Amino acid sequence: MERRQNGGRRRYIVQQFLTAIGDDTERLVCFLFLNGYKNTGICRILHLKPRELYKIKVKIGEALKAAGIEVPED
Question: CA 15, 73, 48, 37 torsion: positive or negative?
């Protein structure tokens, strides 16, 4: 049986997580993903190499999991 997260609680946790991000690049990556940008667009806008973006995504994903937020796999 799949356990579903409460939407309000999840939203609160995500908001707290985003306000705690100290790195501007990580915060911008989150912002751009939340606004529908794809990997290529984010790399172009932030002048990142795909490998750099991948590392940032892994770091953010691990932090989200540690905060108790389920992260869908790409």
Answer: negative
Q: What is the pLDDT along the chain (74 residues), one digit of tens a residue?
A: 445 556 677 778 777 877 888 889 999 998 898 899 999 999 999 999 999 999 999 998 888 888 777 766 65
- CA 73 to chain centroid, in Å, comes to 12
Place of tokens 């108790």: 68
Tokens of 53: 């973006």
DSSP three-state, residue 36 = coil
pTM across the whole model: 0.73
Alpha-carbon distance of 21 to 27, in angstroms, equals 6
d(CA 13, CA 15): 5
In contact, 41 and 7? CB cutoff 8 Å:
no
